[in-house]
Structures are given as C-alpha cells and as structure tokens.
Amino acid sequence: MENRGTRLEWVKKVAEKVTIPFATGGGVRNIEDMKTLLDLGVDKVSINTAAVRNPELIKKASAEFGKDRLVVAIDGRKNLSGSGLPRLEVVVKSGSEATGIDIIEWAKRVEKLGAGEILLTSKDADGTREGYDIEMTKAVAKAVTIPVIASGGAGTLEHLYQAITIGKASAVLAASIFHFRETSILEAKRYLREKGIPVRIQKGGM
C-alpha cells in the first residue's frame, strides 16, 4: 500500500471513531494487505486493479475472510461502436489504463469468484455531477445477483434516486454533494425514504 504508515494510522483512527460500516481500498495488492486493514477494524476491503491482474485473489480473499467482507471495485468507460473494443470496458489504475475486458463479463466472473459486492464507477461520469451512468449501472446490476453500488456523477438528490430506480443499483456512493455541503447525508436519506426507497437512519441522524 502506498504511503503505508500514514495511511494505516489514518485508517485506524477512522475505524475507532465511526459507528457505521467502514470500507477502505486503494493500493490493496494481496491477502496480507487485506488482513492488515481488517485487523485495524475495517469492516470491508475493496480491491480493484489487483483483482484484474490476478482474479484468483478474489477467490482467495473470499475464502480467507468471507465474501461479506470483500468488495470488488470496477471502474468502467464507454467506447464508440466500431472501435473494436467492448461497449462497456473495464479500466484500471484510476481509469488511466484500458484492459479490453467487457465489464459485464468481468462482473459475472467477479461474482462467481466470491465477491460480496461490486462498487461500480463510471470514469466517464465521475466528477461531472451530471448523474450516474445509468446504462452501465443497469447492465451490471442485471447481470449479477450480488449488490451493486453505483458511483460517479452524483450532482443532485434526484441522481441518487435514478441510480436506484432506473439503474437498479442496490446502493449509491456520492462525495462532492456532501463535501461542498449542498446537502447532508441525513437529507439525502430522508429524500430517498420519502420517495419510497428503504433507507436506514441511525440515531444521531446518519
């Protein structure tokens, strides 16, 4: 893991403070990295590039720690028709490297190997605040039976709702709408609940 000492100290502090399930990823390369994070109090570990490079890592991690503690993050992008590449393609290294792997086939394989959840990020939509990639989200969600968490593109509360109802995501991840304090997590949960989406609201408003 990059900047290992600093990062592990940060992870430990967060795990000690939060009362909600806490997942972390980024730079996790092997079983030893996962064990280190889980021993610090992390509930789930996410792997991405390492899984693409070595798919058997998913199987080993699931057997070692249980599928409920393993999230496989999948970054994807769209390609133009006639490009010779998959319409929906897996990318790695934060989206900087193409793989030529079809995202639907990879999602199916990930599930078969033992992943408990998929964290799906559209690198085309990420940071745009114009909404999730509904096409990609729905395609992956329909292809697997494990939960799919949609990520990348949230700019409004309506986007969260669309990803769940139209995109068939089991959950949604958002960052900038909370970071810039345009809304709060509690407001987002209340909005979804009012729209008929079952959402758990803990004591204290989270």
Automatic annotation (TrEMBL):
Keywords attached to this entry: Amino-acid biosynthesis, Histidine biosynthesis, Lyase
Could you tell me which pathway this protein works in? Amino-acid biosynthesis; L-histidine biosynthesis; L-histidine from 5-phospho-alpha-D-ribose 1-diphosphate: step 5/9
| Enzyme class, first EC level, given as a word | lyase
What are the recorded Gene Ontology BP terms?
L-histidine biosynthetic process
| A GO term, aspect molecular function | lyase activity
EC code(s) of this entry: 4.3.2.10
Catalysed reaction(s) here are: 5-[(5-phospho-1-deoxy-D-ribulos-1-ylimino)methylamino]-1-(5-phospho-beta-D-ribosyl)imidazole-4-carboxamide + L-glutamine = D-erythro-1-(imidazol-4-yl)glycerol 3-phosphate + 5-amino-1-(5-phospho-beta-D-ribosyl)imidazole-4-carboxamide + L-glutamate + H(+)
Please identify the protein, giving its name as recorded: imidazole glycerol-phosphate synthase
